[in-house]
Structures are given as structure tokens and as C-alpha cells.
Specification:
Length: about 140
């Protein structure tokens, strides 16, 4: 896949699309073969290239997978900090992204307080927290 390309993976239910995305996203080891990214294996017997996964790939899951005891602000701030941002920068980035999707007023809300659409927008913005080079979206509709 070249820079700027948009790729769609389609297939029947149960054909392995979600499994392939989790492998490409570095969330699951492949049973066989290897994934090469920028000339280096995503996985090796010694370690997973987790730094790359945290800073270059954003993942949007089928379900929002929000942490029930974290506010919307904290959901995104945590991801930013895991990717190497300072807490201050991560909070600012979270506010900026949520403002772009009309959710800045929900910064202090918890997942149970959000509609389904709001949860999905938070999950999408979580994927953009680290300015990823790659976005993997599982069932983005």
C-alpha cells in the first residue's frame, strides 16, 4: 500500500477481515508468515514493534471499546500519553479533536452518558490522537 492510498477489504461474514485487521494493526500475532512495515517485521520472536504500533497506526474497532470508568477526555488523553505526548499536550489534542466532531461539551462525560453515535465519534477520535500514518477501521459504517 502506497502513501495516500485508500484500501477497502471486503468479504463474507466470518471470512477473516477483522482478524486480518487486528494482525495488520499489531494487536494479534499471525499464525504463519510475517507483516513487513517500512522494511522491518511488525513482529519478531524477540519482541513486537509496539512503539510503531502506538505512534503510526490508529485503530477503529467495530464496537467503541471505551473504558467505562474514564471520562471522554481521559479516554483520549491516555492514548496520547501512551504514544509519547505529555499529559498537557494530550489533553489539548483531545479537546481539539472532540471540538472537530462537535463533542467538546462532552469532555467530562462517561461512556454510559453518551449515545451510540457519540461513543463511535469518541472511538474514531481516539484513533486520530497520535496523528497516525495508517488508520485501520473495522466495520466503519
Amino acid at each position: 500500500v502506497k502513501t495516500g492510498e485508500f484500501v477497502i477489504l471486503s468479504g463474507a461474514s466470518g471470512s477473516g477481515k477483522s482478524t486480518l485487521l487486528t494482525i495488520l494493526g499489531g494487536l494479534q500475532d499471525p499464525d504463519t508468515g510475517k507483516i513487513i512495515y517500512n522494511g522491518a517485521p511488525l513482529f519478531s520472536k524477540e519482541k513486537t514493534n509496539s512503539d510503531m504500533r502506538l505512534t503510526e497506526i490508529g485503530f477503529i474497532f467495530q464496537a467503541s471499546h471505551l473504558v467505562p470508568y474514564l471520562s471522554v477526555r481521559d479516554q483520549l488523553t491516555l492514548v496520547g500519553q501512551e504514544a509519547g505526548m505529555s499529559k498537557k499536550d494530550a489533553k489539548a489534542r483531545a479537546e481539539q479533536l472532540l471540538d472537530q466532531v462537535g463533542l467538546k461539551h462532552r469532555l467530562d462525560a462517561y461512556p454510559f452518558m453518551l449515545s451510540g453515535g457519540e461513543k463511535q465519534r469518541v472511538a474514531i477520535m481516539r484513533a486520530f490522537m497520535n496523528n497516525p500514518k495508517i488508520i485501520l477501521a473495522d466495520e466503519p459504517t
